[in-house]
Amino acid sequence: MEPITISRIFLGFLLAKVLVQSYLELRQVKTLESNRDKVPADFADTIALADHQKAIDYSLDKLKTARFFRTFDLIILLLWTLGGGLELLHRQIAFLGLSTNLAGIAFFAGLALISGILGLPETLYSTFVLEEKYGFNKTTKKTFITDMLKGILLSAIIGFPLLYVVLMIMDKLNDLWWLYTFVTIVLFQLLMIFIYPTFIAPIFNKFSPLEDESLKERINNLLAKCDFKSNGLFIMDASKRTGHGNAYFTGFGKNKRIVFFDTLLKTLDPEEVEAILAHELGHYKRFHIYKMIFVSWLTLFLGLYILAVLMKLPAFYMGHGVMTQTNYLTLALFSMVSGVYTFFSTPISTHFSRKHEYEADQFASLVSKKEKLISSLLKLYKDNASSTVQDQLYSNFYHSHPHARDRIKALRAL
Ligand SMILES: [Zn+2]
User: Fold this and answer.
1) Cα(371)–Cα(278) distance, rounded to whole angstroms?
2) How crowded is residue 219: how many other Cβ atoms within 10 Å of its Cβ?
3) Which of 36, 101, 196, 322 gives 317 a disulfide partner, CB atoms 3.0 to 4.6 angstroms apart?
4) For residue 281, how far is its CA from the centre of ligand 1 (angstroms)?
5) pLDDT in tens, 118-128
6) CB of 238 within 8 A of CB of 136?
């Protein structure tokens, strides 16, 4: 295939992606706007008009912001690829006269630095303007800057050695490099699962053991009922950054920790906390977590194999604006453009994610009070200013969680 054909295919996919995104967004905006003056019948008793309107405005503002920065990102992507940006950066690095693998590290460091700077306006805007406007932002400028520095330091300490190993494998192991890289990344991820809760997460947040004895007893009863062994219940100081609430698990095997955002405990009563935790346990007990990990490994395996095939085709990198063939350039190019091609698989993954949510709700209704799960969902919707109005098609495409109305309906029907 000629490079020009690849360029045309790339632009075609890009255009299709933009059209699909814009069409879905248009539908969503219309649905939100036309429902602004009235709370949907299903929620008329539970959600006040003012809260409903705040949720609609928040959703609309988020959409507008996303649209603006998406256009910006699209231009950046075109500049990096067909515009010759990757090639240009590679030439600058070549002047340094480093060994191939060190040049690779320098290249990715440069790429990360430039992308980081270009991404800063969006992070700043959504944290300090958008989230601020709706009262969710609790991040101070100091926290923001220290978070950023810690993040950079961590990615350098953890990311660069991994990248160096991958580049070495690509360099030395000829045709089977992709298989060895796959194994390396999987082992690395397993290591991260073990060290993340105890070593990395505490760099960013404070985790204190749950001390409320009656809540602890309630939760331990639930864990015993579900035959779930955990290595401690913790409260995380999420309120340091955001007003949004959540609960989650980290770790594996005996190293599992249950973490509650302090923001969640502030909003929900003990029975509701129990119901939310029961839902999270449902994800675990119904093997969703293992399924997701399996799917992500399968995707990685296929992705690396496809990359190994494409690397041998000059038309692939030339068609995307890269003229020189080096391992690190192709790696960077592939990670940059693959999202354009995989965008159309989004509804498949969100479909399974929504299915899992129903299953986890169903599990929660077996081991805790489903009325409490419903009331906690309503409270979280209100507190997070999530809109109870959604365009069906938009929601089917993007949303990892089912529509509140459908979730509550399904719970009531159980
Ligand atoms: Zn869930």
Assistant:
1) 13
2) 21
3) 322
4) 9
5) 999 999 999 99
6) no
pLDDT in tens, 2-43: 999 999 999 999 999 999 999 999 999 999 999 999 998 888
Out of 274, 280, 357, 383, the active site residue is 280
Ligand 1 centroid – CA 357 distance (Å): 5
Res. 251: pLDDT tops 70: no
Distance 335 CA to ligand 1 centre (A): 28
Rounded to the nearest angstrom, the distance between the alpha carbon of 15 and the centre of ligand 1 is 33
Are the C-beta atoms of residues 385 and 134 closer than 8 Å to each other?
yes
pLDDT band at 230 (very low <50, low <70, confident <90, very high): confident
Residue 289, judged by CB atoms within 10 A of its CB (0-12, 13-18, 19+), counts as middle
Measured in whole angstroms, the distance separating CA 309 from the mean position of its chain's CA atoms is 28
Q: For residue 309, give every residue at least 6 positions away whose Cβ sits within 8 Å of its Cβ, in sequence order, or none.
A: none
The CA dihedral of 346, 349, 350, 356, to the nearest 10 degrees, is 180
Q: How far is the CA of 177 from the centre of ligand 1 (A)?
A: 37
Both tokens assigned to 374: 């419903």
Residue with tokens 């095939």: 309
Catalytic pick among 131, 272, 274, 361: 361
Task: State if pTM tops 0.90.
Answer: no
Residue owning tokens 């800063």: 120
| Helix axes 3-34 and 327-342, enclosed angle (nearest 10) | 40
The pLDDT assigned to 164 comes to 95
Q: How far apart are CA 311 and CA 398, in angstroms?
A: 31
Percent of the chain with pLDDT over 70: 99
Checking if the pLDDT of 84 tops 80, the result is yes
CA 29 from centre of chain: 23
For residue 56, report the distance from its CA to the centre of ligand 1, in Å.
23
Confidence bin at 316 (pLDDT 50/70/90): very high
Per the listing, tokens 């010759």 go with: 84
Confidence of residue 219 (pLDDT cuts 50, 70, 90): very high
Give me the phi and psi of 116, to 5 degrees please. -60, -45
Task: Give 283 Cα–ligand 1 centroid separation in angstroms.
Answer: 7
Does the active-site annotation cover 274? no
Instruction: Report the C-alpha gap between 197 and 194 in whole angstroms.
Output: 7
Catalytic annotation on 280?
Answer: yes
